[in-house]
Amino acid sequence: MPDLIVIGGGLAGSEAAWQAAEQGLEVVLYEMRPRRMTPAHTSGQLAELVCSNSLGSNRVDRASGLLKEELRHLKSLIIACADVTALPAGQALAVDREAFAALVTERIQAHPRITLCREEVTELPIGQPVVIATGPLTSPALAEAIAALTGAESLYFYDAMAPIVTAESVNMEIAFRASRYGAGDEEGDYLNCPMNRQQYERFVQELVNAETFPLRDFEREDPRFFEACLPIEVLARRELNALAFGPLKPVGLIDPHTGRRPYAVVQLRQDNRAATLYNLVGFQTNLKWSEQERVFRLIPGLEQAEFVRFGQMHRNTFLNGPALLHPTMQFRQREGLFFAGQITGTEGYIGSVASGLVAGLNAARWVAGRRPLTFPPTTLIGALCRYVSTPAPGDFQPMKANFGLLPPLDPPIRNKRERYAAYARRALADLEAFLSTL
Ligand SMILES: Cc1cc2nc3c(=O)[nH]c(=O)nc-3n(C[C@H](O)[C@H](O)[C@H](O)COP(=O)(O)OP(=O)(O)OC[C@H]3O[C@@H](n4cnc5c(N)ncnc54)[C@H](O)[C@@H]3O)c2cc1C
Question: CA–CA separation, 371 vs 437, rounded Å?
Answer without folding.
Answer: 13
